Amino acid sequence: MYENFAHLYDEFMQTIPAEEWADYIETLLKKHNLRPHLVLDLACGTGSLALELDRRGYDMIGVDGSEEMLQQAGEKARQAGKSEDILFLCQDMREFELYGTVDAIVCTCDSLNYLLEEEDVRQVFSLVENYLDQGGLFLFDLNTESKYSEILGEQTFADTSEDGAFIWDNYYYEDEKINEYEVTFFEKTEGGLYWRSQETHYQKAYREEDIRKWLEDAHLSVEAVYDSFTLDQPDEQSERITFVARELREKKRYIPEGEEENV
Hints:
Elements: H1 9-12, H2 18-31, E1 38-42, H3 48-55, E2 59-64, H4 67-79, E3 87-90, E4 102-107, H5 118-131, E5 132-143, H6 145-152, E6 156-160, E7 164-173, E8 178-188, E9 194-204, H7 208-217, E10 220-227, E11 240-247
Parallel strand pairs: 1-2, 1-4, 2-3, 4-5
Antiparallel strand pairs: 5-11, 6-7, 7-8, 8-9, 10-11
Helix pairs in contact: 2-3
């Protein structure tokens, strides 16, 4: 997704600054009594959040399925002098692999809504549980059905800048709980003309009770669900909700042969 216009994503598509996301994540970590050292940003996109959390002292890994988005993330890391600090991996979130466990996993900006099948969501939860340390937290948000049906559905949004413009058409299919995005980009070329391209994206609304069950089935204990960017419980008007789930199972550490006596 955003393959042709990954370099314009931050300008047009990030309506919530990385600093605000990071502030909220740190609020939740503090409330749920975790000070992680190593954090995975799952579906990290262009790396803005990973870079912001790195600046705040966390060791970061970023995983995303788009090579184009990760190219932008890598370039931003190089410009910030952080190219050696953050490990970016190009992997599908449904199949991601790490070299070991992490203290916390975050997945923001409704990335999980892009999964259109229950089994895909369950697979992500299973992988998250596998790579979280005991006591680690999984923080993620989802757009709600209310947002798709009442805010986005059948609406058109547009914006312009010095370098380009976009038109974003939405169509919500209530029976399938799927929102279709048709995004048309216009990018200014060196000659002053504009190059036009279009991408179609799909997101699916999930019920809170289903997400809770699938997390519990994956042995992730749901500690809280919030109306995003607050510590309030969600209601029928919530547009985005944030889940906090904890890994409770002890993980077996790999110990190289001959080193048992040193552990």
